[in-house]
Write a structure and sequence with these properties.
With about 160 residues, the protein is α/β, with parallel strands linked by helices. The protein is about 40% helix and about 20% strand. Strands 3-2-1-4-5 form a five-stranded parallel β-sheet, with helices on both faces. It is globular, with a radius of gyration of 15 Å. The N and C termini lie far apart (about 50 Å). The structure holds 4'-phosphopantetheine. The site of 4'-phosphopantetheine has 10 residues, from β1 and α4.
Length: about 160
Amino acid sequence: MTRIAVYPGSFDPPTRGHTDLVERSLALADRVIVAVARNAVKEPLFSVEERLDMLRTAVGDHARILYDSFEGLLVDFAHAVGATLIVRGLRAVSDFEYEFQMAMANRHLRPGLETVFLVPPEDATYLSSSLVREIARYGGDVSGLVHPVVADALRRRFAR
Ligand code: PNS
């Protein structure tokens, strides 16, 4: 049986924490689908296609990693692609309440679809897309926090 995991998120933009988690999740499943939620952010900085391109470049080509996007409920997407696992990152206690609520709601909607949490590298526990956006917006250095293509894209976006 092929075990498929979905790693969903906004990824606006993808950070080093996200890419680390994609690679780490390969230990849990035969195939990992990195899924950008189309309706999660009202006014995203990057389009879904831009975010998918950035993820592909940042993570690199891998036969067991697929990239996709979804609209509507995550559980419906997971079911449609035959996934049995949802992977989410847990950085700090502050993430817990929201993640727990979401995991419970998803289990209520589709029992049997398990959510597993992975922790990021120690030096990425404070990292988030919103923090990266904020630093880049005011011209700060985001190298080391994101892949160079993401840093470039941020520079170009905020140079306008
Ligand atoms: O990176 P994020 O913004 O923390 O990701 C949140 C995401 C996209 C995983 C979550 O908002 C989501 O799954 N949205 C789709 C709608 C849904 O199924 N919500 C959870 C059940 S109520």
